[in-house]
């Protein structure tokens, strides 16, 4: 069975075609600058030279049509006809309270995605564009929506509710939803597989640390708490986002700097975090500057690590224990010094890092804790696209 996974932005389509018989990637790429005369399509088939095509692409439908033509190209195509695509898995950022699992897309699902646009105004409209385009281009395929928020719908009410007037929840569904759920689910399942232990016997703290970052408490295979909230702004300090702050800062800064709500929202989302403190949003640049003696970079790094350690500690308390600490995503997978500083502040919980294993640069799944560590510490490279493909395949097989 072939499954096409697409992740649509307002002017982009990220795609991967999987052969789900062995979960291999047949082709992948990106369509950028949709709506312009200088759009770019990258097309990559494993073992072959990447192809780059430029030209006018007016909308998502045309962009997806050109992707399908590449997939069926006589020279380096990987399928002979569109009918060979059995399912399309669509990444959807927000499913609100409507979805606790992935869903085959029908009129009711589309309507529910529309109803959550207020909760993800930058993402859900683009996802709907992608769904429209894909259903036109691939009418015979089963289309499946995989929601980043679905995994977190198992959080108990006391974890997802805010201590605000309850009427705000009743009228507008103001509550915590979380994000990166597809990644946290994939990583947690891989942890169980690597350790050869049932996931319903494990207490896992999953750290998805990239430019956007979140940490999730996964108990018995279910999300019981997560750091991102109603929006991806809450929680950890990130590349350009502030994460948790005193909410009274917002009206204070508005009054002092005479900013609009839009301007202060932009400040918190795009000009804060590592960037706001150090001037760098990329952890590699922050680390390099820190080791070169840049005090602002050192402060940013220390704040970043400290806030994650606090959150990990709170989730150990929430689950009354921990079996596994796992790192994933760009920073989590690639920064040895980051993992070292995080774990060195968690020795009270019995976490003991194997510094030699931690320093190894590899894209493989691996243990980085010692044999004497009371907590398993792992690096698991995330694979959200494969998780989406698996979800789509499962729904096709049960339809």
TrEMBL record:
Site label Transition state stabilizer, positions: 180, 241
MF GO annotations: acetate kinase activity; ATP binding; magnesium ion binding
Catalytic reaction equation(s): acetate + ATP = acetyl phosphate + ADP
InterPro entries xrefs: Ac/propionate_kinase (IPR004372), Aliphatic_acid_kin_short-chain (IPR000890), Aliphatic_acid_kinase_CS (IPR023865), ATPase_NBD (IPR043129)
Record pathway: Metabolic intermediate biosynthesis; acetyl-CoA biosynthesis; acetyl-CoA from acetate: step 1/2
Any one GO cellular component localisation term in the record: cytoplasm
PROSITE patterns from the UniProt entry: ACETATE_KINASE_1, ACETATE_KINASE_2
Keywords: ATP-binding, Cytoplasm, Kinase, Magnesium, Metal-binding, Nucleotide-binding, Transferase
Single GO BP term: acetyl-CoA biosynthetic process
Compartment(s): Cytoplasm
Residues that hold Mg(2+) according to the record: 7, 384
Principal location listed in the UniProt entry: cytoplasm
EC number: 2.7.2.1
Binding of substrate, residues: 91
Family: Belongs to the acetokinase family.
NCBIfam families for the chain: ackA
Chain's role: Catalyzes the formation of acetyl phosphate from acetate and ATP. Can also catalyze the reverse reaction.
Subunit details: Homodimer.
PANTHER family tied to this protein: ACETATE KINASE, ACETATE KINASE-RELATED
Name of the protein in question: Acetate kinase
């Amino acid at each position: 069975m072939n499954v096409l996974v697409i992740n649509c932005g307002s002017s982009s389509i990220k795609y991967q075609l999987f052969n789900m018989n062995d979960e291999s990637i047949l082709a992948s790429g990106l369509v950028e600058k949709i709506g312009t005369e200088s759009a770019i399509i990258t097309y990559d088939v494993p073992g072959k030279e990447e192809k780059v095509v430029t030209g006018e692409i007016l909308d998502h439908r045309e962009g997806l049509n050109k992707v399908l033509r590449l997939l069926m190209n006589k020279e380096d195509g990987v399928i002979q006809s569109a009918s060979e695509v059995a399912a399309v898995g669509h990444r959807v950022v927000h499913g609100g309270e409507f979805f606790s699992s992935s869903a085959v897309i029908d009129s009711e699902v589309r309507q529910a995605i529309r109803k959550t646009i207020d909760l993800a105004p930058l993402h859900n409209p683009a996802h709907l564009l992608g769904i429209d385009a894909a259903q036109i281009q691939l009418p015979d395929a089963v289309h499946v929506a995989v929601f980043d928020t679905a995994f977190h719908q198992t959080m108990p009410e006391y974890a997802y509710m805010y201590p605000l007037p309850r009427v705000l929840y009743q009228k507008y569904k103001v509550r915590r939803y979380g994000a990166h759920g597809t990644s946290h689910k994939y990583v947690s399942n891989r942890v169980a597989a690597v350790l050869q232990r049932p996931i319903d016997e494990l207490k896992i703290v999953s750290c998805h640390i990239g430019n956007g970052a979140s940490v999730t408490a996964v108990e018995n295979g279910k999300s019981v708490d997560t750091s991102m909230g109603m929006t991806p702004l809450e929680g950890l300090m990130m590349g350009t986002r502030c994460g948790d702050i005193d909410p009274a800062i917002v009206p204070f800064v508005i009054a002092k700097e005479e900013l609009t709500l839009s301007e202060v929202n932009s400040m918190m989302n795009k000009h804060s975090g590592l960037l706001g403190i150090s001037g760098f949003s990329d952890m590699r640049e922050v680390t390099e500057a820190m080791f070169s003696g840049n005090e602002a970079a050192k402060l940013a790094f220390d704040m970043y690590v400290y806030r994650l350690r606090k959150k990990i500690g709170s989730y150990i308390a929430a689950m009354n224990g921990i079996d596994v600490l796992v790192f994933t995503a760009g920073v989590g997978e690639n920064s040895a010094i980051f993992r070292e500083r995080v774990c060195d502040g968690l020795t009270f919980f019995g976490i003991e890092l194997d510094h030699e294993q931690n320093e190894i640069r590899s894209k493989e799944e691996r243990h980085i804790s010692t044999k004497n560590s009371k907590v398993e510490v792992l690096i698991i490279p995330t694979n959200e696209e494969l998780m989406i493909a698996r979800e789509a395949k499962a729904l096709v097989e049960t339809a």
